[in-house]
Design a protein that fits this description.
The protein is an all-alpha fold. The protein has 16 helices and no strands.
C-alpha cells in the first residue's frame, strides 16, 4: 500500500470513529422504526400477489414451491455478508440501496409471466429483503445501545405492523379490482416516500466504532443464539403455513375463515412486541425470554391436544405472545456479546433464523405425513421448552 493510500485509510478510519461516537437521538430512533415498517410492508406486499403469479406463469403447486425457493435463496445469499458491507459503507447506504432494489423488483413480480424471469426477480427481491433485514437490525442494536434502554421489541413491533399494512393494502386494492401491477406500483411508491421520510436518521456507519467489520463464521455464544432464533422462526413459519390447515382438518373450521388462526397469532405477537420494551426494562431479558419460551410451548401444547377450535385459537394467541419478544431479546444479546463483531453476529443469527422459516414448512409437513399435524406442533412445543431452558445463557449479555 502506498503512503497516500495509507493516509486515506487513516482519514477514513478517523471519520468512521467520529461518526460512531456522534450522538444518537429521536431522529435515529424514528428512522429505525420507519425502516422496520418498510421491511415488513415490502415482504408482506408480495404474499397477496402469489396466486396471481401462479396463474400468470401457468405453473402447478410443485413448480411454484420451487420458484418461491428463489426468494429464500436470494436472502440466504446476502444475509451472511450484510454485516461486513454495512460496517464498510454504513447502514444508511445499505438500507436505502436495498430498499430501492425492492421498489424496482416488486412491480416486476406482478408483471413477468415466464418461469426464468420470475425466478430471477424473486432472487433479486429476496436478496434485497435479506439485506434490509440484517441492516435494520444492526442499526437497531447500535441505537438501542446508545439509548441505554430496551427498544428492540418496539422496533420489531413496527415490522409486524408493516406486515399487516402491506398485506392489507395490496389485498384491498386487488379486491377493488386493481391489477396486480397497479397494486405493486402503489406499494413501491409508498416505500419510496417512506425511504425519503426515514432516511435522514439512518446511521452512516454500521458498527460500534471498534472495528471487526470482516465476515466471521459464527462461534461461541452466537451459535446458541442463532440456534434459538432458528427454533423461534421455525415456529413462526409453522404458524404461517400450517395453522389454517390444523383448524380445517382437525377442528372442523370452514376453509373460508381458517385464516383467522394466523390473524390471532399475528395480532398477539404485535401486542406483545409493543409492550415488550417496558416489560424487559422492568423484569430483565432473562425471565422474559424464559417465560416467553414457556408460554409459546404451552400454546402449541394447547393447540395440539385439545380438539376444539376455541382452545386452538387460544393456543395460537399464546404462541404469538410467547414468541413476540424472544427474537428482539436474542438480537440485543447478539449485539452485546464479545465473541465476535456485533454486525457479523447479527448477520449470522439472521441467516440461521431465516433458514428456520425455510425449513419449517418441509419439516412440519414431513412429521405430519408420517404421523399427524398435532404431533408436529407438539415437537415445536418441545423445542420452545429448550428455548426457555437456555434463557440464562442466551440472555446473559442482553
Amino acid at each position: 500500500m502506498s503512503e497516500s493510500d495509507s493516509s486515506a485509510a487513516a482519514v477514513a478510519s478517523v471519520a468512521s470513529a467520529r461518526a460512531a461516537t456522534a450522538p444518537i437521538g429521536a431522529s435515529e430512533r424514528l428512522s429505525t422504526r420507519i425502516a422496520f415498517f418498510i421491511a415488513g410492508l415490502a415482504m408482506a406486499a408480495w404474499a397477496p400477489l402469489v396466486p396471481y403469479a401462479k396463474a400468470r406463469t401457468g405453473v402447478d403447486e410443485g413448480t411454484l414451491g420451487l420458484l418461491l425457493l428463489a426468494l429464500g435463496a436470494g436472502s440466504l445469499m446476502t444475509m451472511p455478508l450484510t454485516g461486513a458491507i454495512a460496517a464498510r459503507y454504513g447502514c444508511r447506504r445499505v438500507i436505502l440501496l436495498a430498499s430501492a432494489v425492492v421498489c424496482a423488483s416488486l412491480p416486476l413480480l406482478a408483471q413477468f409471466s415466464t418461469v426464468p424471469a420470475m425466478a430471477l426477480s424473486l432472487f433479486v427481491f429476496g436478496a434485497a429483503i435479506g439485506t434490509i433485514d440484517v441492516a435494520i437490525n444492526i442499526q437497531a442494536v447500535i441505537v438501542e445501545k446508545a439509548s441505554g434502554r430496551p427498544l428492540m421489541s418496539g422496533f420489531h413491533g413496527f415490522f409486524s405492523v408493516g406486515g399487516i399494512a402491506g398485506a392489507g393494502l395490496v389485498s384491498i386494492m386487488l379486491w377493488l379490482q386493481a391489477t396486480p401491477l397497479v397494486a405493486a406500483l402503489s406499494v413501491a411508491v409508498l416505500l419510496a416516500l417512506l425511504m425519503l421520510l426515514g432516511g435522514r436518521g439512518l446511521l452512516r456507519y454500521g458498527d460500534d466504532g471498534h472495528g471487526g467489520s470482516m465476515f466471521v463464521l459464527p462461534h461461541g455464544v452466537v451459535i446458541l443464539i442463532g440456534a434459538l432464533c432458528f427454533i423461534v422462526f421455525l415456529a413462526e413459519g409453522a404458524m404461517l403455513d400450517w395453522s389454517a390447515l390444523l383448524l380445517v382438518s382437525g377442528r372442523g373450521v370452514a376453509p373460508s375463515v381458517a385464516g383467522i388462526g394466523y390473524a390471532v397469532f399475528a395480532l398477539a405477537m404485535t401486542i406483545g412486541r409493543f409492550n415488550g420494551d417496558r416489560i424487559v426494562q422492568r423484569f430483565g431479558p432473562r425471565p422474559v425470554l424464559a417465560l416467553g419460551g414457556a408460554c409459546a410451548a404451552a400454546g402449541f401444547l394447547l393447540a395440539a391436544l385439545l380438539p376444539w377450535a376455541g382452545t386452538t385459537l387460544l393456543g395460537f394467541a399464546l404462541v404469538g405472545l410467547g414468541c413476540s419478544n424472544i427474537v428482539p431479546i436474542l438480537f440485543t444479546a447478539a449485539g452485546s456479546q464479545k465473541a465476535m463483531p456485533a454486525g457479523a453476529a447479527v448477520s449470522a443469527i439472521s441467516t440461521l433464523g431465516y433458514a428456520g422459516i425455510l425449513a419449517g414448512p418441509a419439516g412440519i409437513g414431513w412429521i405430519a405425513k408420517i404421523s399427524s399435524l398435532p404431533l408436529a406442533f407438539l415437537v415445536l412445543g418441545a423445542a420452545l421448552v429448550a428455548v426457555a431452558a437456555s434463557a440464562r445463557i442466551a440472555a446473559a449479555k442482553a
